[in-house]
Amino acid sequence: ETGVTQTPRHLVMGMTNKKSLKCEQHLGHNAMYWYKQSAKKPLELMFVYSLEERVENNSVPSRFSPECPNSSHLFLHLHTLQPEDSALYLCASSQEVGSGEGGYTFGSGTRLTVV
Amino acid sequence: AQKITQTQPGMFVQEKEAVTLDCTYDTSDPSYGLFWYKQPSSGEMIFLIYQGSYDQQNATEGRYSLNFQKARKSANLVISASQLGDSAMYFCAMREAWRNQGGKLIFGQGTELSVKP
Prior knowledge:
The complex is a heterodimer.
Chain A: E1 4-7, E2 10-13, E3 18-25, E4 31-37, E5 44-50, E6 53-57, E7 64-70, E8 73-79, E9 87-94, E10 105-106, E11 110-114
Parallel strand pairs in A: 2-11
Antiparallel strand pairs in A: 1-3, 3-8, 4-5, 4-9, 5-6, 7-8, 9-10, 9-11
Chain B: E1 4-5, E2 10-14, E3 19-21, E4 24-25, E5 32-39, E6 46-52, E7 60-61, E8 64-69, E9 74-79, E10 88-96, H1 98-101, E11 105-107, E12 111-116
Parallel strand pairs in B: 2-12
Antiparallel strand pairs in B: 1-4, 3-9, 5-6, 5-10, 7-8, 8-9, 10-11, 10-12
């Protein structure tokens, strides 16, 4: 049982739909992240949150909108997506952003298919 | 510029044998951390092992060891006594100091390991 829970595990949506991905951690971590993993490509960092404040947005299209209402929850709101947005979306958390030795704890991901 | 390079898209190993997965990295930061993660078909990224740039000894965690060669900027993962359950994608990652990359974890392309019975 991972310390980071993502729902749903699978999502199929049309290009005109609006949906949200949810991530939850109860590890007491202060930083949370969204990564995108497309086939045959390295993981791409999308957003970084530290203590509910967005500290980084890596040139992600506006059709992806993150929300961090508290340090335990992170959402990714999706609207008018494109087929190339189909990917595995991974959420992760860490004790702090930029802290020393600690790695990230990942969720199991949401596999998104845009049709 | 590519920060983390994994040159082996796929590897095969016989069950019970050892296997080495290659990873090279590029950084000018004297302080950094190196990580290996395993990703089975379920999708979850599982942390395996960590090596700090100032660590004098190679990291070990059970059947996993990290062959850290700082001068060559390589951090190869060695899995001893391979098991069928080791079949998965393996990712090497690096975390530089906050002032350079915001402490972000940057991943390589991954190596798909298949263990044969």
